[in-house]
Amino acid sequence: MCPTGSALHSKATGKPNLRSAFDVLDVGRDGKISTNDLRTSYGEFLGDSEDDVIGTMMTVADSNKDGYVEFEEFQKVLDSSRRVNVMEDVFKVMNKDGDGKVGAEDLKSYLNFAGLQADDDVKAMIKLGRGDNDENGGVTYEGFLKILSL
Questions:
Q1: Among 40, 35, 22, which residue's Cα sits nearest to residue 66?
Q2: Which of 38, 51, 96, 118 is buried deepest, with most CB atoms within 10 A?
Q3: Are β-strands 32-33 and 69-70 bridged in parallel, bridged antiparallel, or unpaired?
Q4: Does the reported pTM lie above 0.90?
Q5: More confident residue, 81 or 20
Q6: CB atoms < 10 A from the CB of 108, how many?
Q7: CB–CB of 103/138 below 8 Å?
Q8: Is the pLDDT assigned to residue 101 strictly greater than 70?
Q9: Tens of pLDDT along 24-69?
Q10: Which among 51, 41, 34 is positioned nearest to 4, based on CA atoms?
Q11: What gap in Å lies between CA 78 and CA 100, rounded to an integer?
Q12: Nearest-5° Cα angle at 34, 29 to 36
């Protein structure tokens, strides 16, 4: 449930209801998200880095470079194909030795970096991602996605 009281996921499809999320950020209610809308929505959470973070958000989302993010641009940023690309990038960062697999130490290191303590769970995650009982081997990208879907 978002602050407006509407659901952020469609009950029928289970997919994100991006219009509701967009409307929350469109503080000016003019059908587009401006830097001022983002400042109003996120300013208190960003502190000293407010201008940098909001500038980055606008650079990524404002594909037509008119200074605003319209709903179609918002959708493009948040669609599933982009999320897959992000997950590929995360996998590549975790795959430090470049062998195409993420091992237990890689996964544990990344989770610790993200502030998550998962020492004992990491080996179980690897086993589930591989689909076998070998906890010493790494997981491929497909196995990594399997871990994330659990």
A1: 35
A2: 38
A3: antiparallel
A4: no
A5: 20
A6: 20
A7: yes
A8: yes
A9: 889 999 999 999 998 888 777 667 778 888 888 888 889 899 999 9
A10: 41
A11: 26
A12: 95
